[in-house]
């Protein structure tokens, strides 16, 4: 017997390579109980992330292949649940100006965040499926097919150009600075590396990198400036590195080359020149040199 609500509404993300049994059962249940079914697909403002790897069109086509008669609408993510609820109601009325909707959700669904005007109901027993685990499993499988390779290329091109944030630190001890040299290079560089998502600040990232690469404790971080780094790994890529340079005072510890640093050496500032640095760090030496000149 069909539900007295003419319109069945499903709100979800469906961020999987194909509909799993739980999805199919959910949609089929709603289709059998309503004259019309509308599926709202959550759309994030960021592109190709681990949580949201698939775009709207890809997911829409996936669902329509199995359920060609449903209506599928994009629903943008919003920072505020009330605004999101109003947008859901607005878009629902745009595609269904007449009729009484019933919004379906499962466990841990949108229902607890929805404050709109329409009735909601929770469907149990759809199955214990985890989109996160499905995506993780899929991410570990490499397939020798043109479609797989095309998908990888599609994902690479459908991203915003990225800037990778790094930090570099000039570790100071009086009139000396500690520099490092990598094994495949002759010239020296400032200590530093990529900012990690677990870092609370660029200063913390710089302190972490200093500890990881030299083993010494540093303090009294002072911001010097930022610069785009002409890193050889990204020289021919759209994506680039922009670093933040700090000075920091040596506190204690024996400077020991660690991580990807092959050699550490203290240099007198007055004896250094741009040619002593790897090419990509000469712009950073310029920032430090100007600061030390001002101090003098």
Keywords, separated by commas or semicolons:
six-stranded mixed sheet, 7 helices, five-stranded parallel sheet, Rossmann fold, 11 strands, 296 residues, 29% helix, 2 domains, Nucleoside Triphosphate Pyrophosphohydrolase, alpha/beta
Give a written overview of the molecule.
It is a single chain. This protein is α/β, with parallel strands linked by helices and 296 residues long. The protein contains 7 helices and 11 strands. The longest helix has 15 residues.
Topology (SSEs and partners):
Elements: E1 7-12, H1 21-33, E2 36-43, H2 56-66, E3 71-76, H3 81-95, E4 101-105, E5 119-122, H4 131-139, H5 146-157, E6 163-173, E7 176-182, E8 191-194, H6 202-214, E9 217-229, E10 240-252, E11 261-268, H7 282-295
Parallel strand pairs: 1-2, 1-4, 2-3, 4-5, 6-10
Antiparallel strand pairs: 6-7, 6-8, 7-11, 9-10
Shape: elongated
Helix content: 25-40%
Catalogue the unreliable spans: none
How much of the sequence is in beta strands?
A: 25-35%
- Structural domains: how many: 2
| Arithmetic mean of pLDDT | 92
| Number of H- or I-type helical stretches | 7
Q: Briefly note the CATH topology name of the largest domain.
A: Rossmann fold
Distance between the termini: 87 Å
Classified by CATH, the class of the largest domain is Alpha Beta
CATH superfamily of the largest domain: HUPs
The second-level CATH architecture of the largest domain is 3-Layer(aba) Sandwich
Order of helices and strands: EHEHEHEEHHEEEHEEEH
**Number of DSSP strand runs:** 11
Alpha-beta content class: alpha/beta
* Largest sheet features: 6 strands, mixed
Radius of gyration: 28 Å
């Amino acid at each position: 017997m069909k539900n007295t609500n003419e319109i069945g509404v499903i709100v979800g993300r469906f961020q999987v390579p194909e509909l799993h049994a739980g999805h199919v059962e959910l949609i089929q249940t709603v289709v059998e109980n309503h004259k019309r079914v509308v599926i709202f697909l959550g759309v994030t403002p960021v592109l190709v992330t681990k949580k949201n790897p698939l775009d709207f069109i890809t997911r829409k086509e996936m669902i329509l292949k199995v359920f060609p008669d449903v209506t599928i609408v994009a629903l943008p993510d919003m920072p505020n649940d009330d605004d999101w609820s109003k947008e859901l109601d607005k878009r629902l009325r745009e595609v269904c100006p007449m009729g009484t909707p019933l919004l379906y959700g499962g466990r841990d669904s949108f229902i607890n965040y929805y404050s709109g005007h329409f009735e909601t109901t929770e469907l149990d027993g759809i199955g214990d499926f985890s989109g996160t685990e499905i995506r993780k499993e899929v991410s570990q499988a490499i397939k020798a097919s043109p479609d797989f390779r095309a998908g990888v290329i599609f994902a690479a091109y459908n991203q915003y150009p990225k800037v990778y944030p790094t930090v570099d630190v000039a570790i100071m001890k009086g009139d000396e600075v500690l520099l490092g040299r990598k094994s495949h290079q002759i010239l020296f560089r400032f200590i530093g590396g990529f900012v990690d998502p677990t870092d609370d600040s660029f200063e913390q990232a710089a302190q972490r990198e200093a500890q990881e690469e030299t083993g010494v404790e540093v303090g009294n971080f002072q911001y010097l400036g930022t610069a785009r780094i002409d890193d050889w790994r990204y020289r021919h890529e759209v994506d680039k590195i922009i670093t933040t340079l700090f000075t920091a005072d040596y506190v204690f510890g024996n400077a020991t080359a660690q991580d990807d640093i092959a050699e550490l050496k203290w240099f007198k500032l007055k004896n250094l020149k741009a040619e002593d640095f790897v090419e990509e760090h000469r712009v950073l030496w310029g920032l430090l040199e100007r600061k030390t000149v001002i101090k003098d």
